[in-house]
Amino acid sequence: MFKLFPVKGGLENVQGFFCGATNVGMRTKPSGTNEVEIAGDVAFIRSATPCDIAAVFTTNVFRAAPLRHFQKYPKDFQTDFVLINAKNANAMTGEKGIEDIDTLFASLAKKINVLNPVMSSTGVIGYRLPIDKITSAFETLDFNAKNSDQTAKAIMTTDSFKKELAYKVELEDGGSFHIAAICKGAGMINPAMATMLCFIITDADIPKSDMAELLQASTEDSFNRISVDGDTSTNDTVMLLANKQSGHYHKEAFEEALRKIMFELAMLILKDGEGANKLVAFEVTGAKNQEEAKKASRALSNSLLVKTALFGEDPNWGRIASTIGASGVVCDERTLTIHYDDLLIYSDEHRELDKEREEKAYKIMKQESFKISCDLGQGEGSYTSYGCDLSYEYVKINAEYRT
Amino acid sequence: MFKLFPVKGGLENVQGFFCGATNVGMRTKPSGTNEVEIAGDVAFIRSATPCDIAAVFTTNVFRAAPLRHFQKYPKDFQTDFVLINAKNANAMTGEKGIEDIDTLFASLAKKINVLNPVMSSTGVIGYRLPIDKITSAFETLDFNAKNSDQTAKAIMTTDSFKKELAYKVELEDGGSFHIAAICKGAGMINPAMATMLCFIITDADIPKSDMAELLQASTEDSFNRISVDGDTSTNDTVMLLANKQSGHYHKEAFEEALRKIMFELAMLILKDGEGANKLVAFEVTGAKNQEEAKKASRALSNSLLVKTALFGEDPNWGRIASTIGASGVVCDERTLTIHYDDLLIYSDEHRELDKEREEKAYKIMKQESFKISCDLGQGEGSYTSYGCDLSYEYVKINAEYRT
After folding, report:
1. CA nearest A392 in B: which residue?
2. Taking the model in full, what pTM does it have?
3. Containing domain of residue A286, as a range?
4. Which residues from chain A sit within 8 angstroms of residue B378, using beta carbons?
5. Which of A271, A301, A331 is the last residue of a domain?
6. What is the CATH number of the domain that holds A166?
7. DSSP label at A23?
8. Is A195 an annotated catalytic residue?
9. Cys-Cys with B15: which of A130, A167, B203, B269 at CB 3.0–4.6 Å?
10. pLDDT digits (tens, 9 = 90+) for A32-62
11. What CATH number is given to the structural domain containing B342?
12. Mutate to test the interface with B, among A304, A314, A333, A348 (most CBs of B within 10 A)
């Protein structure tokens, strides 16, 4: 048996890791919060000793330069340094974008000994990195800092709050280890892990072989289940770094901690969905199979009409039904039932909302988070995805993002 | 050879057809325009003689009652009457929804002789039709009216203007025929023909066998190429009625007229996209095959990030590239080129927008309509779909629609 509990702060809890950020003026105008301005635009995470690393990247075919740079290392490479910048995605920059990363790392090597450094970028697509600005960061960064707060803030783009979490795992034999993570992401999140960066570090003595397996499975059940606007970016990255320094490990315990931390971060991203105010779970059960449940559930979390109805707090189940009907899954209006939380909204016997149920439905929809459950009555397949509402604010943020 | 020219007005141009509308108070509160209030909520189109009929319906599995009622007639049935109502979709109403239509037609038959009448409804999902109100319309409707303007207005829901068009075709042998149409549709339009009703009538002496073939092909190249918000409704219907009264027909001429009228109506729907201000053609060429071109083109016209960038008039080609990259088609950033109208925006050689091209791009994006062309450089496949921007207004309309 083991115990798992949250601890204060973030990355600084994990033995042997350092992190920090600085500001080199890449954020050309206030991006909403002064906090971010001060926290900076170039950040790093490093370990005193070499780490094994596992990563999940975007499915977008235009993978950004840092992702392609990462993939040039041999399969089982170890690293001790991650360099991160905001405001420029280094995407669609061709071979030159990859060369720019090598140039940066050559300068970095003059300041600190690094092993196979990797990079991660977020921001606007199509512009070369400002090499001189980023290089200037190496003069001011304190490579022995343990400033998780600053690091989490420096990677924000349209995020309205920083996202960091840490857990301690205590094992039965008295041993313990830590796992901590920071991530960024607000808009453009999709069931394909879009415009998000997530860095997870641990001092657990995890075997390399477990890392990719557990990271992939947890990604599937966390970041791949959320949707803000259905788009998929060129830079999405989830990284897990393990320096093994605690000397302790327990697979089930690690898996539970990893799943918890990733699911909670995914919910934070959704909560911070650009202009979003509500977090809704779309549970589909009774589908012909799991693939169909997933299809229907994702159709709901991605539908503009559903999202605007959530924003309007309108218990219009017609949009829910219509979206399921359009999703291409096997269903029948006679076997379908729809619940909002525990309230029956639609079934073959109850098609029109009476005043009483309508009042109850309004109350449910006024909550910050609730569940919409649809049972298709066709089989055993089930899937839950998570979405948010679409507000005026979303349009404003995205109409004005670049300029 | 033949001549094709637009004529004033709408349905009244076609020999032997009658149409009109009345107001029975189904519109419970002002829906924006007083015009619509006055024009009414129950409308009809009828022919003095039996018509052949062809129809294309939604792909949503929850087909509304009027569509299922239509499909109960034998395959080659003729009709002379279409009853249309706004404000209530008669969808997700089960078998009772179909019985309600029979009840209405029984009342109608007491007022006027009708042959296999069909119905078409649009509005909110999940409520039974108000039988008494609709029946009361039969007392006030003038079945010998030729009021296309009133009919086109009565079928509007969130439309901000009525949509009607008419063409006259003159044949070389001196014969001529007319084709005219009305349609409604604004939000919820998708490459799957969503929330739109379109009624096309003609006095051309078209053989029944040509009707379904030409209607299907023209739907594919018109309503199926537009996207407002990617949703697909329970009620979409495109109907073609032919009473043959002109005694003239010419297949190529009819096809050209039908394609023209349907494409123009599709563009009107897009122009009236809820809260939309811009009409954009997304042309994809050089795809591996046509299927891939279609996939990429539709990904663009459906992307929230592309739509909000259009609204913000931001020449952010990164969102275009990223959306193509996420669409799952074969492409490579070295072979991709992007143009806005005739302006080169991205190619392997021109990745960053210089000031001059950026200024030009801004000017193009300020237009009411323009073209975004993406050549994938992978093959011969091409496809164009049409989309619009996403504004604050869209969110407002859809948050408030039902209540």
Report:
1. B392
2. 0.86
3. 279-400
4. none
5. A271
6. 3.60.70.12
7. -
8. yes
9. B203
10. 444 455 678 999 999 999 999 999 998 888 9
11. 3.10.20.340
12. A304
If one compares B227 and B288, the residue with the highest pLDDT of the two is: B288
User: Which chain A positions have a beta carbon within 8 Å of B92's beta carbon?
Assistant: 318, 321, 333, 346, 351
Quick one: closest CA in A to B63, which residue? A325
Q: Is B132 exposed, middle or buried (0-12, 13-18, 19+ CB in 10 A)?
A: exposed
Set A158, A195, A219, A337: catalytic member: A195
Q: Which two tokens stand for residue A158?
A: 């349209």
The residue from A219, A252, A271 where one domain ends is: A271
Binary contact (A231, B188; C-beta < 8 A): no
Chain A contacts of B232, Cβ < 8 Å?
322, 325-326
How far apart are the C-alpha atoms of B131 and B219, rounded to whole Å?
Answer: 32
User: How many structural domains compose chain A?
Assistant: 2
Smallest Cα distance from B254 to chain A, Å: 32
Radius of gyration of chain B (CA): 22
Residues whose CB is less than 8 angstroms from the CB of residue A72 and which lie 6 or more positions away in sequence, other chains included: A98
ipTM greater than cut 0.85:
no
Contact present, B357 and B340 (Cβ < 8 Å): no
Q: What is the pLDDT of residues A315-353, one digit of tens each?
A: 878 889 989 998 999 999 999 999 999 999 999 998 888
Instruction: Measure CA A131 to chain center.
Output: 27
**Between chains, do A62 and B331 touch, taking CB under 8 Å as contact?**
yes
Per-residue pLDDT averaged across A155-183, rounded? 93
* Owner of token pair 């799943």: A259
Phi/psi for B8 (5° steps) reads -65, 155
